[in-house]
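FAQ: What does the model actually see?

It sees only this:
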Amino acid sequence: MRDDEKVIELLKQLYGNVSNLSEKDLVNILYEKCAGLEKQVNYITSLLENMNEFFLTYDISGKVTFVNKRSLEFLGYSAEEILGKSVISFVHSEDKEVIENQMDCRLLQGLAGCYEVRLMHISGEPRVIRISATPIFENGIITGGSVLGEDITERKRMEEELRESEETYRTIFENTGTAMLIVDGDTTVRLANSQVEKLVLYTREEIENKKSWTEFVPGDHLYVMRDYHFSRRKDPSLAPSAYEFTLLDRLGNFKDIFLNIGMIAGTPKSVVSMMDITEAKGIERKLAESEEIYRTIFENTGTAMLIIEEDTTISLGNTQLERLTGYSKEEVENKKSWTEFVYPKDLEMMVEYHSWRRKDRDGAPSSYEFKFVDRYGDIKDMLLNLAMIPGTKKSLVSLIDITDRKQAEKHIATVNEELEAALEHLKATEDELRHQIILLLEKEKQLRFVSMHDTLTGLCNRAYFEEQLHRMEEGGYDPLGLAICDVDGLKLVNDTMGHDTGDSLLTAVANVIKNSFREGDIVARVGGDEFAVILPNTALPEVEEACRKVYEAVAEYNRNNNDLPLSISVGFAVRADSSRTMDDLFREADNSMYRKKLHSSRSARSAIVQTLMKAIEARDHITEGHAERLQGLAAAMAAVLGLPERSIVDLRLLAQFHDIGKVGIPDRILFKKGRLTPLEYEEMRRHSEIGHRIAQSAPDMLPIAEWILLHHEWWNGEGYPLGLKGEIIPLECRILAIADAYDAMTSDRPYRRAMAHEDALEEIRRCAGTQFDPNLVEKFAEVLESLRK
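And it is asked to produce this:
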């Protein structure tokens, strides 16, 4: 179709049949329409050009086809520098890939999209803009897109400054060195720092938006502080901004607190700073007690006592001074000078003493006599004792009326000595009293600790544990978990290695259990080998996780320690509310633990025995292969005697581990050079009984347990531990006794050199019928002869 035909077709669509119109009419119609369209285009272009928002268009290849003035100002480029350039070329390098993918994806799907992007100003400065990208359609086909944007650079900068400001205030809040709270108008604690956790013994997660500050204040302070709280929110001046109160922590401990509080402007919230002054208040109370003691002493010395200032004013006097002067204390204190009570003849000397003493403490006598004048003009002979108060210009003066002494000088001298002795005694008594107070406080602290803690492990004891269970009985701590932990194999360790080793094992177990639970959980040793843990406000999954950590900690300990392995059976129970008693909860946890123990106790004993077996193998280097040689000799004897193969295997095992009980004998005895003392020998003899108990705990060694017990029995009944004799002693023990004695005599030991073969055999023959089975001795001699050939 020709162009003119297309135009006519278009006009038909617009105006119907145009066949009756002239060419001139058609031209006029087209001209009018074009003029109207041009006017609309100019109007839209003017709107876009002068709008306050960033606006540009781009073609299907992403090149800019239109840009308005606001966009030019935003980017700092001229229109010529932007038109025809890729939109992506003005995007910050870190945002290009994301924006390019977004635009391509949206453009292909014909969808609009909104996102933030950084565009680069001509100066190199990145600027943030929030854009809305929309596809442009022509005849249903996407030919490009438009971008409408809002400059949010300043807003983003302000947001960043706000974030930094909040972070700064949060850091200050966290690091003031005091416990800080933000409290809402309804008394809820909205925010708390780490110092609050230490003070109240709750975590921030347990406090923030969950607890009211009133939960930490006992009743006698609560009513006053609630009045303060609500009055302050009406008018801050109606309540004090700083005061002291008593705080109650999670464990029921009372603490003295100094509080500072201020309202956050424009809100019902207040910021609270709390300082623990418990120790300071204790010192303050002790200081008050001390001052009261000194005041009592000052009042009851039996003499007139006064404190004199540098300007000679009497600042303090006791009742004896009232009697001496005739004035009341109110008439004297801070109103009169001591010079008013001195006879004129003595005044000049005493004023000089007063001045010299304040320049040099030793510049004037501390005790002398002078004449005293009272209110009524009566003159009295007075003995003055004076001392400077350290760190001040004040002096402490004692006045004794010695008028009568002047009539009997000797008697007065005696009284004077007694007074001086009394003063010294008072000082000594004061020092002793102070010392006794310190000792009593320390003793009280020790007794309090001992009354609540297990002395071996340092954990809480059963009494404290039961006290806490009773305290939590009525609820307030639910859901509440209870874990029972029992040490597997402790009796075996105590019986074989001694209670010191068992105590070390218990200490290791205590550390493992304590470190597996939270700081607020109550961990206690409630029996010889039993531990218990109370987990307040803890649901079943958290209790299970805590018990799993115990097993992980035990495994970690056993990987890192070559000593005796730990094995702990752990049972637990959880109650949802106070409808279940603590006795029920304890019984369920205990039963759970015993079910675990059924599976683990045997393997625990086996692990301990394996450790002991390794220990005896490690010690065999002292006797240079004694066990191996003994196996060979015993097996050869068994073969000659025609014992079955099973007996030979057990006899070899006996030869290897007959002395396993020596792991329970101290090295100082086992490796002693020289003869053992009677007590040491008795200790050494215990090794066969210890070995018997160990073998009974190991399934592989159970067949030889009795032989280990009896391998030191003598043919004549003078052996140990049971004193068996003759053929009542198992054959295997009689064989081992001969082979063991021979190898011991022909091997070097720490306390002697090895004997010759002939000498050793002669000694064995000599002991035939007493220590050894005489029939087996000759068989053994034949075996040795055969082996030597």
